């Protein structure tokens, strides 16, 4: 049977659609929270329930992704996400509904990255495929954020129906990807113990240790910054429209996409240590928001922050997949990565939720986010110096 496009292109299209909807949902959830009169701190709480799904299920989903054909795992993940959207459509609690979407996302993620070594031939192709996947994902974040903001302003119901339709299309495209055999010998009986051993083994590898902390620090700062921007834009710039705020936040996605695309021309797997420079620069940009009160400057800084972040994270993802594929298995490596990243994000978003509930100022929260990120990058710098 011949296909009109390659399995890798099918993966990229399916990932774009899935990530597009994933990022619509947060803005739709914000509209639901406003419509139904939930308290102001409820949005970061809703985000926390999504992250909790990653933390709780991480020991099992990596095994699930390696046991089953990865294209089939992608389909299952999208079906579960669609169930969460249907729950929102029927006005169930947004925190509970978004947690179900999180369960679908945690199932989907290890297969999304774990299938790349099967669709590429060497390290160079793997880095390029990672760059493309990250670029498609970030473009989806950009477009999904804008669409979620504007669609929820027009009609929450229509926005949710559109989400279900797009997940359906993503599922259909995933069926084009050939099914690998999977490894049926991988079971679930000692999942937690094996997961802990996988984590110890990956942290024992210096490259993986660097990459796990690096990706965790990036996603923590990104998640917290996005929550803060929701409050910072109306307070600092006087903009309250959901569609306009989504456009502003989406600029960061443009920056990350640009950074991801140019990364293969700047950093290779052998020179991955250069990422530390871009991490420090990203942290300085986050602190720069404390001194901004102009829309044009805000857009420039968001674009620059995203671009630096894209260059910072893409090589780290590639190193983890390359080393993990040769050691504990790609799916189990991505499961550990998801666990670490979401622990970081849960701590960050949870801390911001508590701070918002206590009435801590947005600027103080922003300063804390920048300082913590720079602290983690400094830890990575110490790791490199020890070598």
Which descriptors would you attach to this protein?
globular; single chain
Would you give an account of this structure?
- The protein has 387 residues and is mostly helical.
- It has helices at residues 7-35, 42-67, 70-89, 94-114, 116-119, 123-154, 156-174, 191-204, 206-237, 242-266, 275-288, 295-326, 330-358, 362-386.
- The longest helix has 32 residues, at 123-154.
- The radius of gyration is 20 Å and the shape is globular.
Summarize it:
This protein is an all-alpha fold and 387 residues long. The protein has 14 helices and no strands.
User: What's the helix count?
Assistant: 14
Fraction of residues in helix: over 70%
For the termini, the CA-CA separation is 51 Å
Poorly predicted parts: none
Mean pLDDT: 85
Shape type: globular
